[in-house]
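note to self: dont lose this again. the chain is below, predicted strucutre after it. 990 aa total, dont forget to put it in the shared folder this time
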Amino acid sequence: MSVKNFKFVSPGVFINEIDNSFIPKRPDIIGPVVIGRSRRGLAMQPVKVESYSDFVEMFGDTAPGFAGGDIYRDGNYQSPMYGTYAAKAFLNAGVAPVTYIRLLGQQTSQGSNDGGDAAAGWKTFKNPSGAPDTNGGAYGLWLFTSGAAPRRNLGTGSLAAIWYVNQAQIYLSGAVYGGDMPGGDSDGTNYLTGGNNAVIGTDADNLFTLVVSGPLGQPEKIRFGFDDSKGTFVRKVFNTNPQLVSASSFYSNNVATAKSYWLGETFEQELRDNSFTSGALGCMLAIAAGSGVSKGPHNMKSNASTEAKAGWFIGQDLGAAASYVPFRAQKLFRLVGRGHGEWLHKNCKVSISNVRQSTTTTNEYGTFSLLIRDIKDTDSAVIILERYDNLNLDPTSPDYIARRIGDKYMAWSTTDKRLKSYGEYDNQSKFVYVQMNNDVDAGATDATLLPFGYFGPPRFRAVYDLNNSGACATDPGFQHGDGSTLAKFFVTGGADITAHKKTPTSQVVIYLSGGMRLDASTLGLSPGAGSMTGSLVFPAVRLRKSASDGGLSDQSNAYFGMQTTRTSTSTVGDNSIGDFHRVLYSGYTAGGGENPIGRYTNTGVDDYAYVFTLDNVKTGSTGVYYHLSGARAAETSVTSASLGDLLNAGYNKFTAPFFGGFDGFDIMKPDPLYNEGMGSTEDASYTYHTYKRAIDTVADPEFVDMNLLAVPGLTKNALTTHMVRTCEDRADSLALIDLPDVYIPPHEAYKSSKENRITTTPTQAANSLKDRIIDSSYGATFYPWVQTRDDATGAMLWIPPSVAMMGVLASSEAKSELWFAPAGFNRGGLTKGAAGIPVTGVTQRLTSKERDTLYESNINPIASFPSNGIVVFGQKTLQERQSALDRINVRRLVIFLKKQISILSTKILFEQNVQATWNRFIAMVEPFLANVKVRFGITDYRLILDESTTTPDLIDQNILYAKIMIKPARAIEYIAIDFVIMSTGASFED
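---
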């Protein structure tokens, strides 16, 4: 300290204490970014988790693959999700958080206009070679109540199940309702000719028989029913794995093991409600088929991942009850998923409860609660995932629903190659954000409005009162009940249903675009016997009818609206609810362009299946509250007399569905992002673009903090090189990349034997890496793959080395510091638990010579020793030139120093560029460097900040320039010991 700082008056010794040993507060610990698939969770955006328990809550547990089961309904868990293991390995060390980016299928603008590999999603095909289908597609089975009267009236047919046909014909076989079908067998059985089908009844056991006839082996003839308590249940006897249509590629080289179809949606709740589980008539209809069909259930191509959403919540009727029309009710808000894809509508529902009117004269806004619930819970045993109480619709209130739950969302900018955030209020919900109606957000709506109902999900239009009142081929008279033409029918996504004359001319045939044929003979009518009628309806989830359903001890605990139980009186959730809310029409966007009668602008699709409102709740003679559509308009509902009467009685709650989520994946692949099926550019491959977009998301160091980047299992050279270049451009991260062909897991390609899964040698891997000329200290790679055991299932699986190394780097930092070499028996012993997850084997045991070959080419060997187990035996980066930075520990040290000193430096930004500020900088950085030296990160350092670095010229340019010189501590990688053998008479001093 300068003597000018002392005040000298009388002689004496003046002592001042200067403490340069203090340890500055360490900034928040920075961890890795891991990119991969997971069971659930926010997708295509970085999410930081602090512990593995937090990770499981958000993204689910590890997924080892080969889960089997009902894959179409329950989800694809047929391939390992390596990213989940990498996150677990790192978090088990407990040192730093992990930022995880869950992948869902994305596409460029090229993919949006291309039905091929550039397009996300999936579609059925004609044959395994990939030629587009012109005959197959999606086929639905409609059920009619057996013995409908009069016989010519089939009544209302409800869609029971959908089959997706890849390269076959599919039809019912059995006794034709009313007799032989023209052109059919004389014994009364039906077969498919020219795409036409007939009405078939169940057999003596109340079972249908379905025939699948195609090029894959002999025709399958399968008996089935819809009672899920029996072994003949439709989902138990039919293939529900879409991947089996590609079985010759992934599971076996025997084409006979492949399937030409899979069973998609089934609607058990609707079937139980309509007593279709025992005895019915059925007919197969093509929902979408033929060369003229571009969109439909069978063609979900050109669709990136889509968020599930809830329908618009609407307010109560404020007008005259007699003129009430529900779909004209005031829209208030809706909920949109924050990035969960299909998971949200398959696992969650939303309830509005505690709806209350205002109790003050100073504010007319009422309050309500919003619950995100488990879709399988019941009103007698509610499972709440998130809860928000005392919400309101007052934009100026701190309890405004958008403010409390959040209305921000993220969207990818194709121009800037980054995520952009939109909205005003930070998200508090893990599941949804709020989309407000503009009028509500502007405070322009009536303050007394409360959430009182909702718009249901979209669905294909039904055919009501299908009839042929005339015999003229040019004007057959086929109409909907509302008078609109059959051109609005859902078949082929809106294509016309054509009517043709037959001989005799008085008989009219309806061809449903390659599906069912209704004609007089089919229905057992003689030619000219008169009109025939029937309706075809797509199903919707049951709405609670009575507050007494389910045996609630307090009926006011009943939530009206969507009911997700097996039957109206059941207390068990129904497994089919998610199927009701899938996307069946590709490219659907609800809420835009709906016309006054609520029809979706695309022909054949309604914007909503129904409109629910508490305004239609009334009381019966016994005092039980129940819901009856039209009660408000009939002036018989409770609210027709008084809104308060209903709310004060406690009937102030209802439940709504989420719908329309889509993952954007090809469901016919065990791993929809597998390397072998990936194209070479973003515009040529949706999988390539999905990975690249995720990597580009973390390219900006000011958006995401990280010091490691891993995409476990990704081996595409162009993309792994892009990972390294991204870290290099950031200059603060190390990319761990996996090499191609080291091991080919089953989800990548079929191999006849396990040894054939190892398709490269250490020499070939070394030469291949040399040819890539990556030459960067911001990347590292390891060899070979290792084996682990899944803790939850006990399954053994092979994982890429980047997974194990995530654990090694974390445990090495926990045991010592991040600048210690993550290798060797002390910190790299995989058998001893350094990986954070159990490691039990390697795909190849490396010899000493093979380890040398790999290490000379900057590939770090993972060695297996008989007595010491499996150990990481190298720590080189991918830098080809020799320097201190060609070692992982030094690169990580320098990344750490640069990052932390950069954070410290921000404290003097915009301060005066004078000596006092320089001293502040030195006072912050000197102790930090000294501390790193004490912890063996550096052996020496020097910090220079004075007039020699920050010159007057730089000061004039507003620049402070400092130099920091360090000597990194090097790791011992080679030990040389001379054993000198001496003669007996020799002196050691010699």
